[in-house]
Amino acid sequence: MGSDNSMKVLVPVKRVVDFNVKVRVKSDQSGIDLANVKMSMNPFDEIAVEEAVRLKEKGKVKEIVAISIGPAQAAETIRTALAMGADRGILVKTDGEVEPLVVAKILKAICEAEKPDLVFTGKQAIDDDSNQTGQMLAALLGWGQGTFAHSLELTDASAKVAREIDGGLQTVELKLPAVVTTDLRLNEPRYASLPNIMKAKKKPLEEKTPADYGVDATPRLKVLKVSEPPKRGPGIKVKSVSELLDKLKEAGAI
Amino acid sequence: MAALVIAEHNNQTLNEQTAKTVTAAALVSTPVHVLVAGENCKAVAEAAAKIAGVEKVLLADNALYARMLAENMETLILSVAEKYDAILAPASTSGKNYLPRVAAKLDVPQISEILKVVSADTFERPIYAGNAIQTVQSPAGKKIITVRTTGFKAAAEGGSAVIENLAATADAGLSKFDSEALSKSERPELTSAKIVISGGRGLGSAENFKLIDKIADRLHAAVGASRAAVDAGYVPNDYQVGQTGKIVAPNLYLAVGISGAIQHLAGMKDSKVIAAINKDEESPIFQVADFGLAADLFQALPELDQELAKRGY
Ligand SMILES: Cc1cc2nc3c(=O)[nH]c(=O)nc-3n(C[C@H](O)[C@H](O)[C@H](O)COP(=O)(O)OP(=O)(O)OC[C@H]3O[C@@H](n4cnc5c(N)ncnc54)[C@H](O)[C@@H]3O)c2cc1C
Ligand SMILES: Nc1ncnc2c1ncn2[C@@H]1O[C@H](COP(=O)(O)O)[C@@H](O)[C@H]1O
């Protein structure tokens, strides 16, 4: 561990509804209507893959392993990571929703087998908006964490992470191995080129199940219903700045 | 048993998100205790003791907690966890940082960003950028919860809780604070301001944000931004309002040069009154705005400034 071109990075990538889609709640309130909805890699995970690939290009990292826990189609999400520059993939097949704690337990087992120096997760999956998997993984492994990473600097045995916090930026120094969760400003992910998409098809992709890691994937939280958020009443258009101020005054807003 | 609320503070003042989290906590389990972890933060503990409904304040005053690093917060909270059936923190970047570690170590799921306590074990929380609301029931055992504080009123003052010292846990030795660069502003804080004025890509530059600042100063408002404005470097990252930024619900939210993407709406659509200025008549922001002005912001903002001055703001 530590010296140049010897590090291994694990990047968990989640298959989610594309960020451009406005989801619809099913009329029986049992969940979200996912029929014919465009799915993509969670945008924060693209940032995580990009960061790992850049470190590999700089000669700091030797191997990048992309992992997804989900349905068979999550293999596509892993292929996208491979096309961006990851070296191999692990698909842990599950049916139905997996909770962050379950994901963290599976990732923990994978980390124990793979012994990475770093794990890059997204700060948040844009479907469940949980913002917890990376932190849970770090705790289960007894590792340090740099959440909401804005920038990352690697030295031999440590990582300096500038974190996007409510008041601005905070920089922490982490002992390796560690978990880093990505925020929007860390980098701008690349698009995979066609030749790289073709090459990715030949990269190794292992298939596993939660049972292979001794993890029970049954959700523990019971979802009683999924409903529409309250709707706002219709608004009006005003013609001028002074009419706007009149209306705001009437509404008690200023 | 009891509920434990982890206080949000900067070692000097108690952030009002704490009193809001106390309100949520009291609906889950009573009595409510507050843990203040920090360094030289006695004043914070004294402020927490005055929150109505708080029975006890645990004060862990030690250099180890000066920056509330997640790894040491984890062991500190775990050292008292067995006495509580619910542990709650505001869904701030701080709460989101340490609380999932506690949940993982206790082997329970964390319930993130609750909007509402339906009953002691059932909660509403937003998913898909707030386009759906999930009602979830927690399994038996401890409940670990982060609270979206815009959904709860702050508990009043008037309490007189006892303050008890809590022994520090050993340094986890996994992370070290290096430095911080905090945004300084005389304006009210984004998440607690009564009026928020946000600018988007339409502003075009950092310099042009001064047009927003001027209006904000007249209305004693906080200044926010869209992701596009932050990414372009017009304003710092902590200005970002949205699904993956700050959640605000002021009396008035004025969006200027912001198109109204799903991710932006997620952070402001619970504001009492929404107004928008955008030169594009068809902009989606007008679908959520109570009052929409289709105009060029470079004309409208200076005019707004003058009109406010004329009206004595
Ligand atoms: C994972 C992920 C997370 C995200 N999280 C967030 C988030 O938390 N918050 C967030 O805001 N976004 C977020 N986004 C980004 C979001 O999808 C939009 O890209 C972003 O909100 C757009 O910002 P904008 O409205 O300023 O820019 P644009 O969409 O480019 O809109 C600019 C607007 O300004 C108007 N305009 C231009 N010039 C003028 C003028 N002279 N006068 C008046 N109006 C003018 C235009 O008509 C246009 O409507 C996220 C995206 C992803 C993928
Ligand atoms: N099913 C999954 N498969 C792979 N990675 C996941 C999965 N769920 C969560 N993650 C990772 O954890 C991050 C945070 O997710 P969450 O805690 O659900 O918001 C994501 O950005 C991913 O990096």
Number of extended strands of chain A: 13
Of all chain pairs, the largest interface belongs to: A-B, 81 and 90 residues
Give the overall pLDDT of chain A as a whole number: 96
Q: Oligomeric status of the shown chains?
A: heterodimer
The overall number of domains of chain A is 1
CATH class of chain A: Alpha Beta
Query: Which CATH architecture of the largest domain in chain B would you pick?
Result: 3-Layer(aba) Sandwich
> In percent, how helical is the residue content of chain A?
25-40%
Question: Could you explain how this protein is built, in words?
Answer:
The complex is a heterodimer of chains A (254) and B (313). Chain A is an alpha/beta fold and 254 residues long. In chain A, 26% of the residues lie in helices and 31% in strands. In chain A, the strands form 2 sheets. A 9-stranded mixed sheet of chain A has the order 9-8-7-10-6-1-4-5-11, sandwiched between helices. Chain A has a two-stranded antiparallel sheet with strand order 2-3. In chain A, strand 7 (144-154) and strand 8 form a beta hairpin. Chain B has 2 domains: 3-165, Rossmann fold (3-Layer(aba) Sandwich); 190-310, Rossmann fold, CATH 3.40.50.1220. Chain B is 27% helix and 27% strand. Chain B is built from 9 helices and 16 strands. Chain B has a 7-stranded parallel sheet with strand order 5-9-4-1-2-3-10, sandwiched between helices. Chain B has a 5-stranded parallel sheet with strand order 13-12-14-15-16. Chain B has a 3-stranded antiparallel sheet with strand order 6-7-8. In chain B, a hairpin with a 4-residue loop joins strand 7 and strand 8. In chain B, helix 3 crosses helix 4 and helix 5 runs parallel beside helix 9 (297-310). The chains are: A alpha/beta (254), B alpha/beta (313). The interface between A and B is large, with 81 and 90 residues. Strand 12 of chain A pairs antiparallel with strand 8 (132-137) of chain B. Adenosine monophosphate (AMP) binds next to helix 1, strand 4, helix 3, strand 6 and helix 4 of chain A. Flavin-adenine dinucleotide sits between chains B (200-202, 226-229, 240-245, 257-259, 261, 263-264, 267, 278-280, 283, 296-298) and A (19, 43, 126).
